[in-house]
Amino acid sequence: MSEFMRTDIPGWGADLPKQRKPGVPREAKPHPAEHSHWERPERQEGEPSVLMTALRDEPTPVFGTAVPPHGLSGRLRRMAYAIPDNRPSHWTTLLFADRVDVVESAVVDTLKSRRTWAVLGAAAAVGLVWLSRRDRER
Amino acid sequence: MLAMTYRRPRKVRIESKADPVILHPNDVILRVTRTAICGSDLHLYHGLVPDTRVGSTFGHEFTGVVEEVGPSVQSLKKGDRVVVPFNISCGTCFFCSRELYSACENTNPSAPISGGIYGYSHTTGGYAGAQAEYVRVPFADVGPMKIPDGMDEEDALFLGDILPTGYQAAEMAELKRGETVVVFGAGPVGLFAMKSAWLMGAGRVIAVDGYDYRLEFARHCARVETVNLHEVDDMVRHLRQLTDGRGPDACIDAVGLEADGSAINTVLGRKLKLEAGSPTALNWAIDSVRRGGNVVLIGVYGPPFNMVPIGTAMNKGLTLRMAQCHVKRYMPRLLEHILAKRIDPKGIITHRLPLEEVAEGYRLFEQKLDGCIKTVLIPGGSSV
């Protein structure tokens, strides 16, 4: 086995020696990453809208700000994040909130759509005509 | 700016959103030049990842040009071309200092299981993704790597995720010269795991997938043996027969939580969500690998839990290794491999689409249409 080689594969065995493997050993000797110039990073300004795990008292120095929680799905998400992550109910509540979010967003999209109001307006007009004809017949 | 926006499972569209801004002194804002759809984005697309919010922008594989620089950034300037790891890492915490960059404890306030990730649900910190014209990049002095002058961005693009992920998998398999490894999943990550297994000195590499065109691509691109899971009654028995009855020395699960091949796991995991997706590939890996062998898990799984034959793993004396890739650790060595032409990352790109056609890109990739292996999106202003 020590003489086994595959000469038909370009680069075969190039990283066989341990010293060429970047991930060996699994944990490197502690050192700061190149170009980092802080011991503890500065904190991002602003009140985070991102929800925190129940295991944290304060946000990480850096956090995302995309799509803050909103509506009923947002309330469900806040409930979920109050439950520790090691409990399945944390994750199942979040999945349920995702589904509620889809429904809420579809309703909002529908109400914002000009086509929706055009259809409603046309339906209202037809309904009024029908009612007035019915009243005349009586 | 234009950005991909998730609306509901299996529906994404392009929308106009506000441009990102500098929020932390070490942020940069990148104008995205290339952004890819990852296999793990499909888990978000299918609504399987908790806290995936309507209105989110996905995308964690990208290159870009620096447009704006925060006041404390020292290593980058406007106009630099960079490729960015999908991990957001501070560089100095307990984990980053040990080069375990995907475990950074300063970038994800929402869950203790990983550090921050671009565009991968709010359980990874709520960061906007890069399937957009612009993206905010925190800790810009730590993460991004400059693309060498003269190097095509598409040669560098996969240094941010799938290439180091596949490479780390092959490294974690701890292959000895001439050993046999089975890679479940012939998608982009699986392809790079196969190519990396040769770099690690494997004797045989066997790919398992359910699509003939992907297996054909693997044979051509990675020079591997192949098995179509739909043509085999008993995968475990088949793999043992291929390997002198003992089983392969190592198995790599590059499929993750949406694996085919088991009706019960598909129903319980993917349909009813009574477990976190379908661990079929992992189960096959544990059952087929030889006693004392190594099983590597790099396909994405999520919380809370899955049905896995842990008793089999224990009795066989297996070593299970897994991780979200610590990308930054591998970038320099992989760049050397690319420049020496041992790996051709651009060779797996089959589809290039304008960013505006992101919905079509997801459809092609998800449904495995038109021979799709990897789709790259190109925002306006960059050449198609």
Give the SSE layout.
The complex is a heterodimer of chains A (138) and B (384).
Chain A lengths: L70 H11 L6 H25 L1 H24 L1
Helix pairs in contact in A: 1-2
Chain B lengths: L1 E7 L2 E6 L11 E9 L4 H5 L16 E8 L11 E4 L2 E2 L27 E2 L16 E4 L7 E2 L6 H4 L5 H11 L7 E5 L3 H12 L4 E6 L2 H11 L2 E4 L6 H8 L7 E4 L9 H9 L8 H9 L5 E4 L12 H7 L2 E4 L4 H13 L11 E4 L3 H10 L7 E4 L6
Parallel strand pairs in B: 10-11, 10-13, 11-12, 13-14, 14-15, 16-17
Antiparallel strand pairs in B: 1-2, 3-4, 3-8, 3-17, 4-5, 5-9, 6-7
Helix pairs in contact in B: 3-4, 3-10, 6-8
Q: What does this protein look like?
A:
The complex is a heterodimer of chains A (138) and B (384). By secondary structure, chain A is mostly helical. Chain A has helices at residues 71-81, 88-112, 114-137. In chain A, helix 1 packs antiparallel against helix 2. The longest helix of chain A is centred in the last third of the chain and has 25 residues, at 88-112. The mean pLDDT of chain A is 91. The mean pLDDT of chain B is 95. The two termini of chain B are 18 Å apart. Chain B has helices at 41-45, 153-156, 162-172, 188-199, 212-222, 235-242, 263-271, 280-288, 310-316, 327-339, 358-367, and strands at residues 2-8, 11-16, 28-36, 62-69, 81-84, 87-88, 116-117, 134-137, 145-146, 180-184, 204-209, 225-228, 250-253, 294-297, 319-322, 351-354, 375-378. Chain B is built from 11 helices and 17 strands. The longest helix of chain B has 13 residues, at 327-339. In chain B, helix 3 crosses helix 4 and helix 3 (162-172) crosses helix 10 (327-339). The radius of gyration of chain B is 20 Å and the shape is globular. Chain B is an alpha/beta fold. In chain B, the strands form 4 sheets. In chain B, strands 3, 4, 5, 8, 9, 16 and 17 form a 7-stranded mixed sheet that branches. A 6-stranded parallel sheet of chain B has the order 12-11-10-13-14-15, sandwiched between helices. Chain B has a two-stranded antiparallel sheet with strand order 1-2. Chains A and B meet through helix 1 and helix 2 of A and helix 3, helix 4 and helix 10 of B.
